[in-house]
Design brief:
The chain is mainly alpha-helical. It has helices at about 10-25, 30-55, 65-90, 95-100, 120-130, 135-155, 160-175, 180-195, 210-215, 230-239. The chain is built from ten helices and no strands. This is Phosphatase PAP2 family protein. It comes from Streptomyces cuspidosporus. It is a multi-pass membrane protein.
């Protein structure tokens, strides 16, 4: 299964050379920027988008707990997708493109593991799809970052285009197919947090009072034994 893209006439290889060829013509500083963005920058950007989405959905009046549960699922889906990729990579055993093709401008040295599918593409798309299921606005921004990640991996010379497409497919499949089970498990948890003193994690606004935190009705103080001191004193004088 290693020879998925060895023929130079293969469109996968041709597109690899076309995109990676941009790195040869770019200034050195731009390649260094793309190296950082492709390795770490987009993942940091996704974390910022995820944080922004969390801050936003907490203000929803009706479905804040389920929305926060969906955002919790997004990074969990990415982790599960990366675990699912381990046997896939070992089964396919596709070498990195620079091992089979000469003349590539490889921006990141030391990549010795297999190429299919791309971990970075898998992770970023799983998070992006998870966010999109909760917030269209933040989700579109996250998907845009994931697509940029895929471009960067090919630009850097460390993945074939089909490695990236495979990663996108794997991340999307895990995020969508396991979402119903994940939401069934996570929503009761976030709902319970919404009724606790840590409610700010799930809902915007002030934390509930002690009785409200446990879901209890706070009884009104009534009767002579609970009456204000001035009222009791007035009754004593009247007696």
């Amino acid at each position: 299964m290693a020879g998925l893209a060895l023929d130079g006439s293969n469109p996968d290889v041709s597109l690899l050379y076309d995109i990676n060829g941009l790195a040869k013509d770019a200034p050195h500083w731009f390649d260094r920027v793309m190296e950082f963005v492709g390795e770490y920058g987009i993942i940091i950007g996704l974390a910022v988008v995820l944080l922004g989405a969390w801050w936003s959905v907490r203000r929803r009046p009706k479905d804040a707990p389920s929305a926060v549960a969906g955002l919790v699922w997004a990074p969990l889906a990415a982790g599960l997708a990366l675990l699912a990729n381990i046997p896939i990579r070992e089964f396919v055993e596709r070498p990195r493109p620079f091992k089979d093709h000469q003349g590539l401008d490889v921006l990141v040295a030391g990549k010795s593991d297999f190429s299919f599918v791309s971990d970075h593409a898998t992770l970023t798309m799983a998070v992006a799809v998870g966010v999109f299921m909760v917030s269209r606005t933040y989700g579109l921004a996250a998907i845009g970052l994931a697509l940029l990640e895929g471009f960067c991996r090919v630009y850097m010379g460390v993945h074939y285009p089909t490695d990236v497409i495979g990663g996108f497919a794997l991340g999307t499949a895990v995020a969508l197919l396991l979402a119903p089970l994940a939401m069934m498990l996570l929503t009761p948890l976030t709902t319970a947090i919404a009724g606790s003193r840590a409610a700010w994690l799930v809902r915007a606004g002030k934390a509930p009072a002690a009785g409200e935190a446990a879901g209890e009705d706070v009884p009104e103080l009534s009767g002579s034994s609970r009456a204000p001191r001035s009222e009791r004193r007035h009754k004593d004088l009247a007696a």
